[in-house]
Design brief:
Layout lengths: L9 H11 L19 H4 L5 E3 L36 E4 L6 E3 L3 H8 L2 H12 L3 E5 L1 H5 L7 E4 L4 E5 L7 H20 L7 H26 L5 H7 L2 H15 L2 H19 L2
Parallel strand pairs: 1-2, 3-4, 4-6
Antiparallel strand pairs: 2-3, 5-6
Helix pairs in contact: 3-4, 3-6, 4-6, 6-7, 7-9, 7-10, 8-9
The protein binds zinc ion.
Zinc ion binds next to helix 6 and helix 7.
Length: 271
């Protein structure tokens, strides 16, 4: 489902350059095997607000100016950021982590999950910033790219068509990419080999499974595709269906699906 995660491409580096005055452009993230040190570019980014930790882990956090928050009859899984603001915000509970404001609700949702809280802490230590980019900047031969992690740029990028999806779905993307961030920092499966590439995608999907399991315990049953289709768009419906499938995957099936989805990319460039 997700695009390859540790690719580094000039197009994205140049996009980030506009944001953080990056000038370097590397050809392979795998060459960057050492955990990236805190860098001035991430800390120098100006944020317009610092988001506080949620008062409770039992309710969804919603930005006050998001009109979706006023729809109190809306089911938990249908909440999305309807304004799509792109100014940058920081997080009091994760200093160093920066995201576009439209992703802040997803960051907080992931923070409410025990494992997500740990992943966000690690992402903050790596000074990760989360932004939306054009799908063409992530594509690199991958059809319908979703999101990717670029270690050298300390960047988690979400393909633009997906930026306005349900907060629940966006937090799932973050759980996957932040698992890559944590693994990369720890030196787990960072080499350029096919097995390492498959292993890190399996680990990221297992992280998604745990996030999804926690979500339904706290908020309720996963919606049927029909209900999603009635409330949200077709893209949301498609992701809800695929995550429902992922949540129920056995370990063996998850491995087979990962090979099916990532095998070609892993064989071409090690993930
Ligand atoms: Zn991945």
């Amino acid at each position: 489902m997700h695009s390859s995660s540790v690719l580094t491409r000039c197009s994205v580096a140049l996009f980030v350059a506009l944001l953080v005055q990056f000038t370097a452009c590397t050809s392979s993230a795998e060459a960057d095997t050492a955990p990236p040190p805190p860098t001035k570019h991430a800390t120098a980014l100006a944020v317009s607000e610092t988001i506080l930790a949620p008062a409770s882990d039992q309710s969804l956090f919603c930005l006050p100016d998001n009109p979706g928050c006023a729809k109190i009859t809306q089911p938990w899984w249908a909440l999305r950021n309807e304004n799509q603001p792109r100014d940058l915000v920081g997080f009091a509970f994760a200093p160093g982590l920066i995201s576009e404001r439209r992703f802040a609700e997803a960051v907080v949702l992931l923070y409410q999950v025990p494992e997500g809280r740990d992943l966000i802490t690690q992402a903050a230590a790596q000074h990760i910033h989360v932004i939306g980019v054009a799908a063409s900047d992530l594509a690199d031969g991958v059809a319908d790219p979703v999101a990717a992690y670029f270690p050298a740029q300390h960047l988690v990028a979400i393909a633009e068509p997906n930026a306005s999806l349900s907060i629940v779905i966006l937090a799932d993307f973050l759980s996957h990419e932040f698992r890559h961030v944590a693994d990369f920092a720890a030196g787990v499966d960072t080499d350029d080999s096919y097995p390492a590439c498959i292993d890190r995608e399996v680990r990221a999907r297992q992280t998604e499974q745990r996030y999804l399991a926690d979500l339904v315990v706290r908020f309720g049953k996963w919606p049927s595709p029909g209900r999603v289709g009635d409330q949200l768009g077709q893209t949301d419906q498609s992701f809800f269906a695929s995550l429902r499938y992922l949540a129920a995957d056995s370990p063996a099936q998850l491995y087979r699906d990962t090979v099916d989805d990532y095998g070609l990319g892993c064989s071409q460039h090690g993930g």
